Each structure stands twice: as C-alpha cells, then as structure tokens.
Amino acid sequence: VRGLILGEEPFVMVSENVLGKPKKYQGFSIDVLDALSNYLGFNYEIYVAPDHKYGSPQEDGTWNGLVGELVFKRADIGISALTITPDRENVVDFTTRYMDYSVGVLLRRAEKTVDMFACLAPFDLSLWACIAGTVLLVGLLVYLLNWLNPPRLQMGSMTSTTLYNSMWFVYGSFVQQGGEVPYTTLATRMMMGAWWLFALIVISSYTANLAAFLTITRIESSIQ
Q: Can you give the residue ranges of the Ionotropic glutamate receptor L-glutamate and glycine-binding domain (predicted)?
C-alpha cells in the first residue's frame, strides 16, 4: 500500500531523518496506520505530498495537494489532519472522523449587576402600562355600575362605593388580596368575575416567566 502523508503535529511528525535513508515518522495517525496494517496484514510505504498542501480544487477542475495525489491514483491512502468538506467528499472517501476541532473566542465574563427592577423583566414596559390602564378602567367601570345601581349595604356599614374604594378593590383582587367593598349587584359581579379570570391568567403567566427569567442564564455576546 502506498501511503501519502502531510506532516502536522501531533498526527504526523518526523521521528528520524538520517541522510541517505528514508525518513521515519511517528504520531497519532501513524499509530492508527500501524494498527491497521497489523490487523489487516499489509505493508505500506509512505511519502510526503510534493506540494505540501492538503488539497483544493483548481480552475481547470483538477485537485492539488494530498487530495490530488489520491484523485490521480498516485497514492492509495492519505494520512493527515485533513478537514472533511463536502467538496473533498465528492472526489475521495473519508474514514469516520476520530477528532472534532473547532475555533472559539474567549471572553471575560461580564460582571453581574444587581437590578432593583428585575421583577419587572418578565413583561415588557408596554404590557405593564396596559395592565395599569386596565386596572384604572375596570375600577372606573365598577364605580359607574355601582353608581347607576347602588348596592344594598348592611345597617351600620361604614364602607362606601367611592371611586377610590372601587380602584382599591380592583387592584386588591388583581394581586390576589381581596377587597372590603360589598358589590352585590349582578352587573358588578359579572364584571368582577371576568376581571378575576383575567387576573388569574396574567398572574400565572407572570409567575412562569419570572421563574424562567431567574433560573435560565441569558448569554449575551459582547461582540457585534
């Protein structure tokens, strides 16, 4: 078997270079080749790619380097740290890769800052503004419904259906704290029933988003 190599540490390295004698090589890829020759029972001779290149397509459609030697059948196998690419796979066959290599950039970890408004992060500012406006609107509607059809209060009751109490009642029910104003009319109860359902959905969504925001680390690249 005629083997073609291209030196790159630690895969293929010259171990002995004596004048007048063939060079001897060592390295990880050479160890793999020795193990294959012992297992399959073949002998081999190796030589270095003449142009010392891995192989890339030329303008006339031919290949140079290690891949070119294989394409022109001047070598049976090629041994080197050769990257597997789609273009090369179209002209030569690769074994299963035994090493993955990638290039990365190291960055200093950004310092963590304490944000006193982190509890507002699960929702956008526009959504918070809509929720605040909804609280005011529902409070105003509750007040108007009770003003048009006043509820019957118990004898000696000190509560009143003022606009302030209506706003406070709506806000208290939104944060699941209840209220003290007795709204007994049917229209008001239907309004508050819809409001409680809305509050339940919003609070559940906020709780889920807040838990995800506090537990999942968001990696933001400082390189743009």
A: 10-72
